[in-house]
Design brief:
heterodimer, A: 831 residues, alpha/beta, 6-stranded mixed sheet, 27 helices, 21 strands, globular, B: 622 residues, 2 domains, 2 strands
Chain lengths: 831, 622
């Protein structure tokens, strides 16, 4: 091909399309990310408006929903007035308020995407999609399949299009109706320029046409782009590129056109009468978009204002020094927010910390007999270490109901008449007495409690699969030091320091990975907790730590554990390694954990309509546990729903506040980090991890149909990597409605305890992190460690913030509130 | 004992009717009511089963009441109970009971919670009507209810494109089965000169006596029954509809397409077993259809990479085996096989979301990389050919287009020249001329009157073909369907025995449903000013009440057992003589097309994504 004679670079176009497509990985690696990441280089409001205009997404709650929120006092009147004054200083706030509440606004127009390619239907009277999509999806699904089909794609070594070519070359039948198109494929003539010239015929339209084409099934295209970018995400690896499927789809289009119009059809550019508007033409602000932005900010600050006031009051309280009974580290996850509160209530002398749940140890984990490795650290890291599970006695359970034999003819004949009746009984039991099955996801089985781990590197040359097995002493020391310093735990060590990871358990839930620890790449954090504890207990490591100024007394022990966020259960590892005296203390602490877990279950139950929160605590806890093993329960837990805050600083800022499980909490001591070295590390993780979670919830909530996965009830599992509706539907990335329905779409407010100038300097050291805050995809506030004044980051500078809220409520008891209230609660000061 | 059978038909009717008036937002009440009404059914049935078994599994039959009778014709409702009913009733009641409990939590907060339970109970009512039916007419009532409930469950997510599209598709396949049943009823009426009960069918001497002199008619009836059963049980060549029906919430797919509805074709074959038992050629054919379905469906199941269609095809293959068992006369084995397959597939579908956790885990521990590619050219070619054919579902879906949908469209398009003016200035006056001829029939030559019914039924068929392919005007399409019924009535009236009262019975339902439906469409047109049939309009999003009203009128116009037209349609056929093949073909084709055209209007005007896509709506491909 004479590529140089073309004025358009199609590789660049394909690359650009990939950038805008949904970036969700296959189900087993579900990791939250900003759904509209492609617009993140623009300020939030501009970015979402652009996305909306081009792709037709809803990017904000509707006017009616905002008005409802205002009537229900979810949006504070004074906050709303202040926002109006700040944004529209020239108008009378009350007039505008009236308009917001009762005025008619312009209706949104239809999006730009799809209009060019739609001309095939409008003018050409050919419905391309209904012809192409079932064929394309089926082939893609079969090609990428990870283990559903019994008869695998027979030729899959030559890439997607190459493998289909291989099939076509060697078969007596064809996927295509048109001989001409089949010959194009078989003879290798699948160059995009060539095909587009036939189908579109005008180079200036290629880009828009390809966007239209790929965004008619953005779920499948996004999955292909995600696999192309990271082939290791599939266990059964497949070679595929976005360019492959574009070429194949163009061939299918030609096939459809040949079939419907005969061989002599004209390209699209010759038949259209009016050329639709360019996708990326500038976008005008509308009255509606301005109103929605004002409503949105008012909604956000109706809550944030209380939080900031609470944090300010807390910061100003005098610090009490006491000797801790034990110290416990948890993940920053918002689900630990309430648990830590309950634990501190059970044992007022304990101290809790928050840190990303991989506990600063990044490695690959290989369970015994596992043929693959699981990454257990934040997704962007590619750690060169491997830790293996050895000496496990647990066996994988088999469930014959998933056996593929039941799908074959003869064994199916036997199975239906035997196992079939067994299924009836199982179904009956499962409905009346739900129990865990081999098909449930369970956080405790991620690692066998009784097995050993190869944590310590025996020999620097000990490598497997190109990874170093275990960590050397120096490497261990670095990990422990980094962890302790980042959370500000460098002195006054208690006899017991817990590292408690978290995971979740659910049944009949293809999105199970989304419920586990995001800092461990969607896996439970048990291995990491156990590994960091081993390191902390290592005498050689302690010796080296002492040289670095961290003096862990010999009487102090680390114990690793895992907390199940669905079931509210905990399990500890290697408890018998501590000395008998400490062991006794541990037993006492375990009781505090158990009590706290039960109280946490009670607090969580207020959101579940099927549980009576006024029942006895044991009963509630039992019902909470049942949710995780019930086949018919689409909401095993509510995961990150309602998340909206991230506090980076001392626990003092939040331990007297009731934050309703809405806050990520990262412990941090500004005093030992004057130039923000550790802060940078923390914010680098907070922005993509917490911001990603928050924005995925935001967008799945405001447009559950186009940006979320819709209701999960009709979902059908495709190839083990995605879900779709029915058998011929597009893949549905994003979160199902059952995960987001209680979520109010608030952007994340990050509150840092430090000097504003240090925070600004620190952030500017990492442009990609700075972008999140600069463009307000995440809000940033700072509480001054000395004056306790508040500053809000706006227009790239910190401006003082004065809360409207003057006084927060001090309820005596929370339980009566839990029993009564199902919706979000305001910020309370705890006694 | 006989009188008791009614209980299990009446209970679901009461259950369904009460459920329609329960408050929409009270999930607890809705689900508990469904749970109790199905539970009562299950428990009372079990007690009865014990007593019945104790008394020696006797066959029970109970003639309930006569809906309509005239000289030589009686339309009566009749119920029976035997081993087949016992097994179907138990499996159906048990699974529906479990699924109602399951759905109670599973559907929590779902838009359409009430609609779901209404539809499930509606389905349960049709199911029991069908399996307890003692004669074809009663069975047909249940059959129609099943068809509509199936449509409603597939299109449960009525604001998305694919569910609605597939619902219409599946309904159109069911419609073929309905007509098979009507034709079987037609011929058996002429064969036995009564609406024969299934109990009488098991009287070998009687059946044999009738069949000896009319063996062709006997084969025709068997073939029609087989056609109906094949369509309902997703056997060849209809198989491709079953996986496409998996659009509703998983529990409804599980109970409907995994287990109960899909086995009703098998039920029909079991029910009519005494009739075709001695027709060897028919038995060969049943066995052959079962075998080829089993093979094709197994091959297709093997290449499915999504879990629901894999289960669907695997289930179809087992049903194919059941057909073979039936053809061999192994009735009891077939019953056991049915129950096992129904339980297994229900369970497999309900736990289908777990497949990710389970298989990923399995793969994680036991993965073996793909084997080496084949070297031998011929083996490879054969393998690839089979693979491609299986991926294409052996062209079964395409075949439905080529043999059914496309020809109908093509035919309809031949009449696209007909406009509203033609209808008003030609077809309506022509109809009255036809009526005039009927009243002066004695003045016309016999050879002429002989062909008139055929001509008139053909005009009726043209009306509805045009209606089906009308691209824009919903109201005109609707009027054409009404006209079709009038032409059919006129055509039949030329057959000597047809009474005015019978015509009135037939047309009364049409007139009432037709005019209310017209009013409803007209109203939608005035409000929305756009009810173009070229695309889905989704008006139910803003006008749910109008949608429901129109759906009811659609049911009336299709001859659903809520309107006298239902009996009228059966009457129409009873007046077609066995030798009037052309008339029978035109009239039955009309009835198929009526159903299709009506459901198309409903779907296009009220269902699918809303025309203004600014609302929160899924993409077309979602």
């Amino acid at each position: 091909m004479h590529r140089n004679k073309h004025s358009i670079d199609l590789h660049a176009v394909v690359h650009e399309i990939a950038h805008y497509l949904p970036a969700q990985a296959p189900l087993k690696d579900f990791i939250h990310h900003n759904t509209l990441h492609a617009f993140q280089d623009l300020p939030f409001e501009k970015g979402i408006r652009k996305a909306s205009k081009i792709f037709g997404y809803q990017v904000s709650l509707s006017l009616e929903e905002f008005r409802d929120f205002y009537q229900n006092k979810k949006i504070n009147h004074e906050v709303l007035l202040r926002v109006i004054q700040q944004r529209k200083p020239e108008t009378n706030p009350n007039t505008y308020l009236n308009h917001l509440l009762y005025g008619d606004m312009d209706k949104p127009e239809n999006p730009r995407i799809g209009n060019l390619r739609y001309q095939w239907k409008e003018v050409g009277r050919v419905d391309l999609d209904s012809y192409i999509q079932p064929r394309l999806f089926r082939l893609l699904s079969n090609y990428l399949d990870q283990g559903i089909s019994i008869w695998k794609f027979p030729a899959d070594r030559k890439g997607f299009i190459g493998s289909i070519r291989e099939l076509e070359k060697n078969a007596y039948v064809s996927f295509f109706k048109s001989k001409r198109v089949r010959n194009l494929l078989v003879n290798g003539n699948c160059d995009l320029h060539f095909l587009l010239d036939r189908i579109v015929g005008d180079e200036t339209m290629y880009r828009q046409y390809l966007f239209d084409q790929q965004f008619s099934h953005q779920g499948w295209s996004g999955m292909v782009a995600a696999i192309e970018a990271n082939p290791h995400t599939l266990l059964d690896k497949k070679r595929i590129t976005l360019e492959d499927i574009i070429a194949f789809e163009l061939l299918l289009e030609m096939d459809a056109l040949d079939d419907k119009l005969g061989l002599n059809w004209l390209p699209l550019s010759k038949i259209i009468k009016v050329r639709p508007k360019e996708l990326f033409d500038p976008i005008k602000d509308t009255e509606m978009s301005e109103a929605q932005a004002i409503w949105q900010e008012a909604l956000e600050f109706s809550y944030f204002d209380q939080v900031l006031e609470g944090v300010r009051e807390s910061a100003a309280m005098p610090e009490i020094n006491m000797k801790a009974s034990f110290q416990a580290m948890f993940c920053i996850d918002d689900r630990e927010c309430s648990f830590r509160r309950h634990l501190e209530k059970e044992d007022p002398n304990c101290t809790t910390f928050g840190t990303p749940g991989f506990f600063n140890v990044a490695f690959y984990y290989q369970p015994q007999n596992g043929k693959f490795l699981s990454k257990v650290c934040p997704a962007p890291i590619d750690p060169p270490y491997l830790i293996k599970e050895v000496g496990s006695n647990s066996k994988r359970e088999i469930d014959p109901n998933f056996s593929k034999h039941s799908h074959s003819l003869h064994s199916g004949w036997v199975i239906t008449q035997t196992l079939g009746f067994w299924s009836a009984l199982k179904l009956f039991l499962n409905i009346f007495r739900p129990q865990a099955t081999p098909a449930s996801a369970s956080s405790f089985t991620h690692m066998d409690k009784l097995a050993n781990l190869t944590i310590e590197n025996r020999h620097p040359d000990h490598h497997e699969r190109g990874l170093q097995v275990g960590f050397t002493l120096d490497e261990m020391t670095d990990r422990v030091e980094g962890l302790l310093k980042s959370i500000g735990l460098v002195k006054d060590f208690a006899p017991l320091i817990y590292a408690v990871g978290h995971g979740s358990s659910s049944t009949n839930n293809p999105h199970y990975a989304a419920y586990d620890c995001g800092a461990c790449s969607g896996r439970p954090g048990s291995v990491n907790a156990r590994v960091i504890s081993y390191m902390g207990n290592h005498p050689e490591v302690r010796k080296r730590l002492r040289e670095r100024g961290i003096d862990l007394p010999n009487s102090t022990f680390f114990i690793g554990g895992i907390r199940d966020t669905t079931r509210d259960e905990v399990m500890f590892y290697d408890e018998d390694l501590v000395n008998p005296m400490v062991r006794e203390m541990h037993e006492k602490n375990v009781q505090s954990f158990l009590n706290a877990l039960e109280n946490n279950a009670v607090e969580r139950s207020r959101r579940f309509e099927s549980i009576d929160t006024s029942a006895s605590h044991e009963k509630i806890h039992e019902q909470i546990r049942l949710r995780s093993v019930s086949l018919f329960e689409p909401r095993p837990e509510l995961n990150h729903a309602t998340n909206s805050l991230c506090i980076v600083g001392s626990r003092r800022l939040s331990d007297k506040l009731f934050l309703d499980r809405r806050s990520f909490l990262n412990s941090y001591d500004y005093a030992i980090d004057p130039d923000g070295k550790y802060l940078l590390g923390i914010l680098k993780a907070v922005a993509p991890v917490c911001g990603g979670i928050n924005l995925e919830y935001y967008f799945s909530r405001v447009d559950n149909q186009k940006l979320g996965a819709g209701t999960k009830l009709p979902h059908n599992v495709m190839g083990l990597f995605g879900v779709a509706n029915g058998i011929d539907g597009d893949l549905r990335p994003g979160l199902p409605s059952q995960m987001i329905e209680v979520h109010d779409p608030l952007r994340l407010l990050t509150i840092v305890e430090h000097y504003p100038e240090v925070v600004l300097n620190t952030l500017q050291g990492s442009p990609e992190t700075y972008e999140w805050f600069k463009n307000k995809w995440i809000y940033l506030a700072v509480v001054h460690p000395q004056t306790h004044d508040l500053y809000l980051f706006n227009n790239e500078k910190f401006e003082p913030y004065y809360p409207i809220t003057k006084e927060l409520q001090h309820p005596k008891e929370l339980l009566p509130i839990f029993v009564k209230e199902e919706d979000n609660l305001p910020v309370y000061i705890l006694n | 004992m006989e009188n008791l059978i009614n209980i299990w038909v009446v209970l679901p009717i009461i259950g369904f009717l009460i459920s329609t008036v329960l408050p929409k937002n009270n999930e607890k009440l809705l689900s508990q009511f469904s749970f109790l009404s199905v539970g009562a059914h299950l428990i009372s049935l079990q007690i009865f089963l014990v007593v019945w078994a104790y008394q020696g599994f006797q066959k029970l039959d109970h003639k309930d009441f006569v809906l309509f009778s005239s000289n030589g014709y009686e339309f009566f409702v009749d119920f029976c109970f035997d081993k087949i009913t016992a097994v179907y009733a138990f499996v159906g009641s048990f699974l529906t009971f479990l699924v109602t409990i399951y759905s109670r939590y599973y559907l929590h907060r779902e838009e359409g919670y009430k609609r779901f339970f209404n539809t499930i109970l509606f389905f349960f009512m049709g199911y029991n009507f069908t399996i307890f039916a003692g004669n074809m007419e009663t069975l047909f009532i249940g059959w129609e209810i099943l068809g509509i409930s199936s449509f409603l469950l597939i299109a449960f997510y009525r604001e998305r494109f694919l569910p609605v599209k597939n619902a219409v598709k599946v309904y159109s396949i069911y419609r073929i089965g309905d007509i098979g049943l009507i034709l079987a009823m037609w011929m058996s009426h002429h064969l036995f000169h009564e609406n024969i009960t299934f109990l009488k069918l098991s009287n070998y001497e009687m059946v044999n006596e009738h069949l000896q002199s009319h063996s062709l008619i006997g084969i025709f009836i068997s073939l029609m029954i087989l056609l109906t059963a094949l369509a309902k049980s997703a056997q060849l060549p209809f198989s491709a509809w079953l996986p496409r029906a998996m659009e509703g919430p998983t529990p409804s797919s599980a109970i409907f397409y995994g287990s109960l509805a899909v086995h009703l074709g098998v039920f029909l074959m079991m029910r009519t077993y005494p009739f075709w038992e001695h027709q060897l050629s028919v038995r060969y054919l049943i066995g052959f259809m079962g075998l080829s379905t089993a093979i094709i469906a197994t091959l297709t199941a093997n290449v499915q990479s999504n879990i629901k269609s894999q289960i669907a095809y695997a289930s179809i293959a087992q049903i194919g085996l059941i057909f073979i068992e039936l053809s061999l006369g192994w009735g009891i084995l077939a019953l056991v096989h049915f129950a096992g397959n129904a339980f297994l597939r229900t369970y497999q579908l309900l736990v289908s979301p777990s497949v990710v956790t389970y298989l990923i885990k399995e793969q994680f521990y036991t993965f073996v990389p793909n084997r080496k590619p084949l070297k031998k050219v011929f083996a490879k070619k054969l393998l690839y050919t089979f693979y491609i054919m299986s991926v294409k579902e052996w062209n079964l879906n395409n075949m439905m287009y080529t043999l059914y949908w496309n020809p109908v469209k093509w035919l309809g398009n031949r009449f696209s020249f007909i406009t509203l003016k033609h209808v008003i200035y030609f077809f309506i006056p022509a109809f009255f001329i036809g009526v005039g001829m009927r009243y002066n029939i004695n003045m016309l030559p016999d050879s002429f009157t002989h062909y008139l019914p055929i001509l008139f039924s053909l005009i009726g068929l043209i009306m509805v073909l045009k209606s089906f392919t009308e691209r824009h005007k919903a109201r005109m399409s609707w009027v054409l369907i009404i006209l079709n019924h009038f032409w059919v009535a006129l055509a039949i009236s030329f057959n000597e025995k047809f009474m005015f009262t019978e015509t009135a019975l037939y047309l009364s339902g049409i007139i009432v449903a037709g005019s209310i439906g017209y009013y409803s469409l007209n109203r939608m047109y005035n409000i929305e000013s756009n009810i173009d049939l070229a695309r889905f309009n989704g008006h139910i999003y803003k006008h749910p009440k109008q949608g429901l009203l129109f759906l009811l009128t659609c049911l009336g116009l299709t001859g659903f057992p809520i309107s006298p037209t239902f009996i009228g349609e059966d009457l129409v056929f009873s007046h077609i003589h066995p030798n009037q093949i052309a008339l029978a073909i035109f009239v039955s084709a009309s009835f198929i097309m009526d159903g299709l055209s009506i459901i198309r209007i409903y779907a296009r005007v009220f269902l699918g994504p809303h025309v203004h896509s600014v609302y929160e709506m899924g993409y077309r491909s979602s």
